[in-house]
Amino acid sequence: MDEQIDTTEKIYILDTNILINFSIWCPMEFNEGFWLKLEKLLEERRWILLDVVVNEVLYNQKLKSWLKKQKDKKLVMNIDDNVRNRAVEINSKYPMINNTGNSTGDTYIIAYAEINQLGIFTRESNKDIKDNLYKIPDVCSELNIKYTRHPRQFMKEIGFQNVQL
């Protein structure tokens, strides 16, 4: 009998704001099990960590150390020229980057997700009517890329509850 694949599971790319929020909601020193599960699922490629996301974490030293560990273990995916080129196309059609360069990583996250048919986990909201710049949910909706803003949905879909340590 062929093994059945659970199609309810989805692979997600995490937006930087998720990792920063996880480090606030689940401080590493009090929630080692959470971070070990998250790491195990990263090793299993149930979620994707991009180099542009790692580079956006500037001030949280514990999170930076955890991310460096993932990079040293070769678990961080690097964007390539295909992703860069698609990100430029996306930003041309759906402007996301302001004059200071903020949100540059968002276009790479979206391009990587689109090219690799992945979902995105972000806490960003849709743009306000008075905003000039698009947000991740806006562009995902336009490009038909699955995304979630809900931690419970993300954890369920990547199989977080089934990870044994």
Chart the SSEs and their pairings.
Layout: E1 12-14, H1 16-25, H2 32-43, E2 47-50, H3 51-56, H4 61-72, E3 76-77, H5 81-93, H6 104-116, E4 119-121, H7 136-143, E5 147-148, H8 151-158
Helix pairs in contact: 5-6, 6-7
Question: What this model shows, in words?
Answer:
The chain is an alpha/beta fold and 165 residues long. It has a single domain, classed as 5'-nuclease (Rossmann fold), CATH 3.40.50. The protein has eight helices and five strands. Strands 3-2-1-4-5 form a five-stranded parallel sheet. Strand 4, helix 7 and strand 5 form a beta-alpha-beta unit. Helix 5 crosses helix 6 and helix 6 runs parallel beside helix 7. The longest helix is centred in the middle third of the chain and has 13 residues. The radius of gyration is 16 Å and the shape is globular. The two termini are 29 Å apart.
